[in-house]
Amino acid sequence: MSREQRIPPKKTVTVLDEHNKLYEVGSKDVWQLPLVSRDGRTVGVVVKQVVEPSMYTVRYLVVFSPEQERQFVVPATAVTDISAEGVHCNLTVNKLEGLPTFSQTLSLRQEKEVYSASDQTPYWVEEKKACDYSSTHHDE
Prior knowledge:
Layout: E1 13-15, E2 23-25, E3 34-36, E4 42-52, E5 57-65, E6 70-75, E7 79-83, E8 86-89, H1 93-97, H2 108-118, H3 123-136
Parallel strand pairs: 3-8
Antiparallel strand pairs: 1-2, 2-4, 3-4, 4-5, 5-6, 7-8
């Protein structure tokens, strides 16, 4: 069945964290696209996105792995390309398979576990660096 023939995801929005900051949403742009590891292997399909609406930012992709029969989240910063063939990321199969299972909540502790397991820099660290740089270089 081609991607165009697939039934689109239901329009649901689910709050994931205790601060009402992160939401799980469907996106027809990436829904059911294969997630391809840095080593070229398909490890699952994208089923949802985790967004932070106040920042207009996608924070994670929710991926279902049929082999592992579970869902996990991949930091959006790990995505290197999105095409009709799939979502490509800079994580190896071993890193992807080692990510914690996602079970409909995403606390800060769980986010830290995801970033630790993926060896990625957390978005809040990157954003702080950008803000610090901007505030020290605004007069140039």
